[in-house]
Design brief:
N-(1-d-carboxylethyl)-l-norvaline Dehydrogenase, domain 2; 6% strand; single chain; 58% helix
């Protein structure tokens, strides 16, 4: 479509949004816009009227890639959350107390995306651990043991412990837990997910 419109001297932008129906109703949408940069700058006032967080992602099509990555992360979190919430309740914790505790913790506050990943994984800096691989391995291992005790399937949790075990076997046990993410980078063909300091 982009090329066909360009032949007619018309412009196309790929600009998927995220925020669900409530975001659409309140104007709190993230807009992931891609295409010609000059066209983006010209259209930005319109995009600003659609959402409160507008980002330029690059060449045409990259906005859709970002949306797919975003949603896959979100539904991956949903799947592990289902495992862990059911584990907590079956282990005897009141659901209201459990969900409040999780919401008040680091995961619930969203610091992985606002601080932890930007300071570790996105910089490739793991030698000053916020929390070491071996500590993460211990905690996940204890959660899985609890799952076995209460007969709660933990399929995704078991994948997590495999990654952390592989990281320890690389000799990374004392480094930041995010270093285990390098294993997937290797499997993907040595892709590097690094963000310049001025873009954090």
């Amino acid at each position: 479509i982009f090329a066909a419109f360009a032949e007619k001297n018309a412009h196309v932008m790929d600009a998927p949004v995220s925020g669900s129906t409530i975001g659409a109703q309140t104007g709190r949408l993230a807009v992931m816009a891609s295409g010609d940069r000059a066209v983006f700058e010209r259209c930005k006032p319109v995009l600003d009227a659609i959402g409160d967080r507008v980002s330029y992602t690059g060449e045409i099509g990259s906005g859709t890639v970002c949306k797919l990555v975003h949603n896959c992360i979100g539904y991956g979190i949903q799947a592990i959350a289902a495992e862990c919430y059911t584990l907590g309740v079956k282990a005897g914790v009141d659901p209201a107390a459990l969900t409040e505790a999780v919401a008040n913790g680091a995961v619930g506050r969203g610091i992985h995306f606002s601080f932890v990943f930007p300071e570790t994984y996105f910089q490739g800096k793991f030698d000053k651990p916020l929390f070491p691989v071996k500590g993460a391995h211990k905690d996940v291992g204890l959660a899985l043991k609890l799952g076995r005790e209460h007969n709660v399937p933990m399929a995704i949790g078991n994948l997590v412990i495999q990654e952390l075990t592989a990281a320890i076997n690389r000799g990374w046990g004392e480094e930041d837990a995010r270093k285990a993410m390098l294993l997937q980078e290797e499997r993907a063909g040595n892709i590097r997910v690094r963000v310049p300091e001025n873009r954090k």
